[in-house]
Design goal:
The chain has about 120 residues and is mainly α. It has one domain: Orthogonal Bundle (Arc Repressor Mutant, subunit A). The protein has five helices and three strands. It has a three-stranded antiparallel sheet with strand order 1-3-2. A hairpin with a 2-residue loop joins β2 and β3. The longest helix is centred in the last third of the chain and has 35 residues, at about 80-115.
Amino acid sequence: MADREFVTRELSRLLGVLAHPERIRIVEALRNGELDVNSLQTLLGIAHSRVSQNLGLLRSNRIVSERREGRHVFYHLVQPEIAGWLLQGLTFLEREVEMQDELRSAVGRTREEWRGPAS
């Protein structure tokens, strides 16, 4: 049981780190290779300090790693598969949209039934 608790805590921590739109966008941006902070800032349209702060958190949780080249620091995904994992998450969003559309249609039909024929 201790192993299961440890693993679930670690998975929860990982999901917590990823539970921020800017960090998800950084992971997505790094899916094709490494980028520096300035490139990420331009690509994402967020402040340099926020990019750096998010990269620091991603780095401390071993999601990204850095490579120095002179004065430039380039970031890359430690496990690039994580970007694919997030991409698979879009399936859940698509299903939710489908369910909402289905519910919206069912509510409309029910409303019409409950109103009955126009007098």
